[in-house]
Each structure stands twice: as structure tokens, then as C-alpha cells.
Amino acid sequence: MRGAERRRGRGSLLAALRVAVRDWRDGIDADSSSAVAGQNEPSVVAVPADESELRLSVLLDQLPDTILFIVDEDLRYRVATGAGRRGQGVLDWEGKTLFEVSSPENIVILERAYRAALAGNRTVVRVSSTVTHRENEVIAAPYTRGEHPEALVVARDLTEIRGREMALRLVTQQFEQLVLASPTGIALADPQGRISLVNDAFCALFDTDAESLMDTSAVHLLPLPPVEGANSPGSGWVEQLILSPSGLRTDDIELPGPTVMDETRRAVVSAVVLRDGAGEATSVLINAYDTTEQHRYHEHMAYIASHDTLTGLMNRTAFERRLDEHLASCRDGEDCGAVLVVDVDNFRDINEQLGHRAGDDFIVALAGMISRWVRSTDAVARLGADEFAVLLTEGDRAQAEAAVNSLVAQVRDGFRGLEQFEAVGLERRVTASIGAVSVFSHGTTAADLLSDADLAMFHAKQHGRNGYSFLEPSEVLAARASNQINWTAKILAAIENDQLVLHGQPILDLTSNKITALELLVRMIDDDGSLISPAQFISVAEQSGLAVMLDEWVVTHAITCLGRLQQIDPTITVHVNLSGRSVGDLDFADFIATRLLESGVDASGLVLELTETAAVSNIDSAQAFMRTLTALGCVFALDDFGVGYGSFYYLKHLPFGIVKLDGEFVSGSERDPLDLLVMSSLVSIGKGLGMVTIAEFVEDANSLTLLESLGVDGAQGFYIGRPAPLEHYFPQLDVAV
């Protein structure tokens, strides 16, 4: 018990000493501040008893940077005490005069101060220590105890204090510079919401200067919504924030422009309450940064995700969403309009004879024509290259059929008299085939309706084109079965009877400026000898399970072609497109490996292309498939790179060596800054992954120059060469493969 009492006693004494030392030093600091300010009023230190001097001596022993002297009329240091004596090197000054221990420079300064104190005036001076050469503050005050006047002198080493002050000043300056130079807007408001500090970025949000914002109300300036669960719902958000438990909030808000003519801007604003040690709010720190461009970018990306980039119409995804909404609004038994699929007749001829740019101009014009034809309550979408969908939201079967008939005539006659199309004779060859189905209020989906309308459109093409086919539900079922059976039989016959042919489209190496590759494109030979585009039979092959069989035919003939081409130029490569169903079929991988070994060709000359939209059913099987063939030397290319997010998923998980940049970005890069930005980014990604980059849809010399400036490795398109029989590019192949 006694030990505990002693410990408590020592603790109490130490606490008392700490308080006494703090109070004494605060008094010295206050005196120093007053002296610096020029307040040199007479001051006398009165010591009532020896006990006080002893207490002062004890306190001084706790201050390592302070010395206390008592100086008599002869300027002799009668007393010298304090822990600072050792550090300052003045242990032997007691009993010596100023003239014996100080430098001439200090004697001049200190003698004046000491004599002033002896005369009854308090003074403060600063000198450099004679011994340590460190800066000292010296306070000399009258000291009355006996008959003869004396001076009480306190000397304090200021070096470390000044160092701390300079460090604090430097940190403060750096913080101020950080705040002022910050790209994020920063403001400080008092608890009433009045702004007291702003930086340039904050001023830029409001297109004004700091002076105009000072003392304005943060509540009025920043229209933040009320704090959730606020105790004072009628007060401003600053007061509500101070009263809230968290004292923190972040909001995405809309800022009005400087004038009513200016567009609004978006900003993210965060505010936090700053409090003192007692928990009282002292101010509110506000951070705000302009997100207008980010907001526009996200809006634009959302627009791109739901719209066709060429025409600005809805894309398939957005159209199906709109159609689902329409189905949900229909009531049982009501006529709910119709869904149309519009397909341009012989659009491939337009593209191949006039070029993709003329084809794009035509598609834009046709999109505008259909958009003007529909009512404001209807919807129009572009589904593919030359395929459009229309939702007629009202009308019965007879009304819808009359509308479809008028649209057929509108397309046929709508391009006459337009100079840009008459100049190339386009107005004489534009017709469309339209498929239509009625919308029912139950038992169907948007995807089903589109599929049925697409089937009706093919029915219209089979019956002479330049017309329409409006199928009833019973007719749709029959047409589905008939169409699938007919095309399946046709594809099987073409494979078995060799009624397929490969055409080649050249790929230009932009480094050597030589044709170094051919993309081999399959065509089906129709009964009349004309060629059927793969767009008409590939999807049926996918659905009917014939895709792998078709790919076997293509790969077999491509390897034969590659062997003959390598005899002409050993560096040449051929590209072939594979179905997503084939990529992952390990038996098909063995089939390719066997054909390569049997032919003796260099496998590195075979490039197997997979489109971004191809449905790879099993990513693990696809990896095994691709590893098997890359081990032999084959190269895989990702086609349509950039058209969707699937590209990046495939790049991450599958071993591609080539990326083919989507043609829409290539063709638009010259005139659309966003397309150019996307193109540049895609090239950077491909290069960063160590892949070869090839751009499609190259239509002119300007596009080629642009691609070269972006560092693209290869180019493909009508400007380089159109699809044609292989001997067109290599006359040595006098017999088509």
C-alpha cells in the first residue's frame, strides 16, 4: 500500500511540475511576443522568498534549451542555472563578467540590454552564442531583491524551435500549393455554410474567380439534396451534415451553367465536417470535380450499345427490348400491329460494284427513308448490313398489309431523282423484300417475332423479290420447317457434290507494301451457276449442325490452295473462317492436323479466323483445340476485334496471334473522332499483347495512310482488292481450287 502511495505521490509531483513548466514557458513566450511587437514597457520581477527561487531552479532544470542568469551592476553573472548551461557550454560562467565570456559583437548587444534592465526596463534581443554559434533569444528584466539593482536574464536556444517553425511553414506552403494546384475543386465553408477558401479548379466549375465565391452560401451554390434522415429538414444541407452522425456525404449532381444559355454540367461533390478536439464543427471541407465529359462518354457508350453506329437507328438488342415493352402493353384480343423485316435485294452487288462507302451512303439514305415513313409511335432498327426491322404498334392485319405494300413501293421509287444515286445508276436497281407477321399479345417473344418476320422475308425473296410476304401463325410454322429442310438439303448437296468454291481477298503488308495473305471466302454455286453469298446459308449450317462439315470442306480446299501458293511464294499465308461450333471440336482439330501432315505444307501459313460474335460453347475445349493446332504452327486470328466486350474475353483466354480490327471503326476513323480514338486504342491493345494487327474495310488511299500512321501491320478492303477467284491474284493458279 505504501509503495502505491509513493508512486501516486511521484505522479502528482510530476504532473504539477509539467503544469508549472508549461505555464512558465507560456509566460516567457508571451513576453517574447510582446517584445517583438515593440511593447517594451517597464517590468520588474519580484521574488518574495528563497523558496520561489528554488522552485524556479527546479523548473529550469527541466528545460534543456533554457538558462537563467542574475547579473549585477558590474555585469557579472552572479547566478547561472538551468539545464541549458551544458548544451550552451556556459557551465563556468558563474562569477565571471560579460566582458570575460562573450564575443565583442555580443558584448555590444548584451551590455545595452543588461544596463537597460538594471535601469528598470525590460528588453529582448537575439544573439548568436559565443560558444555554440546557435541563435539565442535573451530576455533581460529588472530584478529587485536587495539594495543594489540586478537584472534577471533568461536565454533560450531558438535553433530547434526555428527549425520546427520553418518545417511547419514549409509543410503549410506545400499544402497550400497542393490545394491550389489540385485538379479537383476544393472549398472550405464555415458551419453556417459561408465559403472562406476556394482553389482554381473549384472556381472553374462555376466559370468565375475566387473573389466572387468568397462569403457566398455553399448551400445555394451547390444544390445538394437534403441529408437522408436529417433532424432539421427545413435547414440547408451544411447544417444537416453537421448534425448527421457520419458528417460525410457524396453526391452526383447537375450544376446550372453560368447563364441560362449555357448547358448544364455534371459534378461529383463530397463534403466532410471538420471538428476540433472537443468535437465541435469548425468547418466543412468540400471536394468537387467536373464529370461532364465522363457523363457524356457514358451516355455515348450507352447510345452505342443500343444504336447502330452508321445510321443512328436502334440495334437488334434495343429493338427486341422495345418489342418486349410493346408486347407487355398489349391486351388480350386486341390488334397489336405487326413486325416487319426489310432486306435490300442484291445489296452485295451494290457493295462489290460501287464500294463500301457508296453502300454506306445508300444504307444511311434508306434508313432515313424508312424513319420518315413510320409513325412517331412506331420503331425502326438496323439488324445487319442491309436488313432493317420495323415495329408497327397499331392496326389490324389489313391495315398492316396495306402499310407493308406501300413500303415496298416507297423503297422501289424513293431513290429516283436523287443525283448522287442516279450518277451511278443505283436508282434503277433498288428494291426490297419485306417479311411481316402480326403481333400477338401472348404466347410469343420479341426474338420469336423477329425470327418469324425474317423467315417471311426469305419467303418473299423466293417468290421473286421486290415484294412482301405476310405470314399467318400457321404459315409461319410450315415455313420454318420448309426453310430449314430446304437449306439443310441444299448445303448437304453442295458439300457432297463439290458445289462450293473459294474466292480470295488480298491482305496488304503495310511494312513491305506487298500482298502477303489471302482470306479465303466460301461461296455456294446455285443451280443456275450464280453464286450464293455465305450470309444466306451459314446461319442455317450453324442451326442444323452442318457447320463442322462445311468447315471441313473449306479447310481441306484451303490447305490444297496453300500448298500451291507456297510453291509460288513460300511466305504467303491463307486465312479461313471457322464456326464457333468447330472451335472446340477436338476431332476437327485432329482432322486439320492430319490434312496438314498429309499435304506437307508449312502449317504457319494457315491462319484460322474466329469472329468475336462466334458462339464458343466451351472455353476449355476451345483452349485445347487451339493449343493443339498452334503447336503445329497454325495461327489464330480474332476477327471483328472491337465490336463487343467478347473480344477482350477471348483475348484473355484464347491464344490469338492476330487481331483484325472491325471494319466499322476503320471506315469511320477519317470522319469520326470517336472511331479514330477507338481505332487507336484497339491498335495499342493489339500491339501491347504482341499481336499482328490487320484493318478491314479499307476503301481509299486516305484510310490507308491513316492506318500506317497508327502503326497497323496489314490492310484489307476494296481499295486493296475485292473478293475474286484465286487466279485473279495469282495467275499461275490457272485452275480454280
From TrEMBL:
<dbReference type="InterPro" id="IPR000160">
    <property type="entry name" value="GGDEF_dom"/>
</dbReference>
<dbReference type="Pfam" id="PF13188">
    <property type="entry name" value="PAS_8"/>
</dbReference>
<feature type="domain" description="GGDEF">
    <location>
        <begin position="335"/>
        <end position="473"/>
    </location>
</feature>
<dbReference type="InterPro" id="IPR035919">
    <property type="entry name" value="EAL_sf"/>
</dbReference>
<dbReference type="InterPro" id="IPR013656">
    <property type="entry name" value="PAS_4"/>
</dbReference>
<dbReference type="InterPro" id="IPR000014">
    <property type="entry name" value="PAS"/>
</dbReference>
<dbReference type="InterPro" id="IPR001633">
    <property type="entry name" value="EAL_dom"/>
</dbReference>
<dbReference type="Pfam" id="PF00990">
    <property type="entry name" value="GGDEF"/>
</dbReference>
<dbReference type="Pfam" id="PF08448">
    <property type="entry name" value="PAS_4"/>
</dbReference>
<dbReference type="Pfam" id="PF00563">
    <property type="entry name" value="EAL"/>
</dbReference>
<protein>
    <submittedName>
        <fullName>Diguanylate cyclase (GGDEF)-like protein</fullName>
    </submittedName>
</protein>
<feature type="domain" description="EAL">
    <location>
        <begin position="484"/>
        <end position="737"/>
    </location>
</feature>
<dbReference type="InterPro" id="IPR035965">
    <property type="entry name" value="PAS-like_dom_sf"/>
</dbReference>
<dbReference type="InterPro" id="IPR052155">
    <property type="entry name" value="Biofilm_reg_signaling"/>
</dbReference>
<dbReference type="InterPro" id="IPR043128">
    <property type="entry name" value="Rev_trsase/Diguanyl_cyclase"/>
</dbReference>
<dbReference type="InterPro" id="IPR029787">
    <property type="entry name" value="Nucleotide_cyclase"/>
</dbReference>
